[in-house]
Amino acid sequence: MTDILIITNYFPPETGAASNRIFHLANGLQKHNFNVSVLTPLPNYPTGQIFEDYKGKFKSSSIENNIIIHRLWIYASNSKNKLLRLIAMLSYSFSLCWFFAWNKIPKTVIIQSPPLLVAFTSMLFLRSKKRKLILNVSDLWPIAGLELGAFKKNFSYKLLEKIERFNYKHTDLVLGQSNEIINHVKSLFPEKDTFLYRNYPDFIAPEIPERAESKGKLKMVYAGLLGIAQGIYKLCQELDYTHVQLHIYGTGAEREKIQALISNNSELDVIYHGEVSRDKLHEALIGYDLTIIPLLNRIYGSVPSKIFEYARLGLPMIYFGGGEGEEIIEQYNLGWIAEAGNYNNLNTIISKIKSLDLELKNREQIIKTAIEYFDFSKQLDLLIEKI
Question: Where are the transmembrane segments (predicted)?
């Protein structure tokens, strides 16, 4: 069996797309007879506090699903203070250095990026002609941070650009979740070996029930992180509720603001359901008419993994984020496109879907598309050939 190490900032029991993505990768490799181990911080996302079962520990090691998991100390924080965020990243980098110094590292290592500093630490200490380093790039930092308003083009930004280039230069293979990521890496290092590795889901979907014709308002759902980038608070304010009722699942930085908005504005037809397990969420999602995938601003390189997960559930989508995601929705006929940031256009599309009695996308066809084109196992087989 080939030994392989995965270094990541997110892993179950943490929730979210990043955690699910790395778990599926680790689990898939293990099923293909790789001896998989994972290096990750003590669970703390998205609360910014170490989970109760891990409090007071400097390190925790366990075997789960035949995967060896080492959870290392981190100064956990989800503070908006940039200095505290930096300290959190540096603390995990320190733990990684400590682990590298005292443990034998496999010859094949997959490193998740971002965070850039964690990837940089791994690249710096694990470079070796005898070792293959694979960089899994899920978002383009620092470009994404600049587009989100988290960075300005100053000395710090230029330093992050140098770190980004260092990481690309010293990896043997770059896995990119979008064509935009692959193109960006190739623009910097044309000869770099790359592989388009989409965030395809790996789960058994619940049986889709027969649906009666939708009466009354369209029931539209958002499920996921309630963060600044998603802009759910603004979405709640800008929606025209004449034809739609919005249901929300998840948690994040905007949760309390959203709850207060709902509580103080009874005219907003919004229902907040809190955070539920992934299995329960899937069962709930298939009961809605359609879902919305929003981004407050178009982020270069970003393709929300929700597209592929919702397709597997047969859930029609309104995509409201711009970029490569639009191309996927249109190419595979998964739903409708609203111009990113244009709430008048979004409301117009919702109105047409309802008032003009436009046929909701065929759910069975969406599922067939997902099975044919978004197959996790087929993609993993191709990746293994590269490893």
Answer: 83-102
Q: Could you tell me the residue ranges of all domains in the chain?
A: 2-201+375-386, 218-372
pLDDT band at 143 (very low <50, low <70, confident <90, very high): confident
Pick the CATH number of 218-372 from 2.60.40.10, 2.10.220.10, 3.40.50.2000, 3.60.21.10: 3.40.50.2000
Residue 372 has pLDDT above 90, yes or no: yes
pLDDT tens digits, 115-128? 899 999 999 999 88
Tokens 């009666």 belong to 212
Give me the sheet containing 244-249, strands edge to edge: 270-272, 244-249, 218-223, 290-294, 317-320, 335-337
Give dist(CA 22, CA 276) in Å, integer: 20
Which tens digits make up the pLDDT trace of 30-65?
999 999 999 999 998 877 788 888 888 889 999 999
Q: Does the CA dihedral 118-120-125-126 come out positive or negative?
A: positive
Helix axes 155-170, 179-188, angle to 10 degrees: 90
* Contact present, 261 and 268 (Cβ < 8 Å): yes
How many CB atoms neighbour CB 325 within 10 A? 25
Domain 2-201+375-386: state its class: alpha beta
Hey, what are 44's tokens? 């703390």
Q: Is 133 helix (H, G, I), strand (E, B) or coil?
A: strand
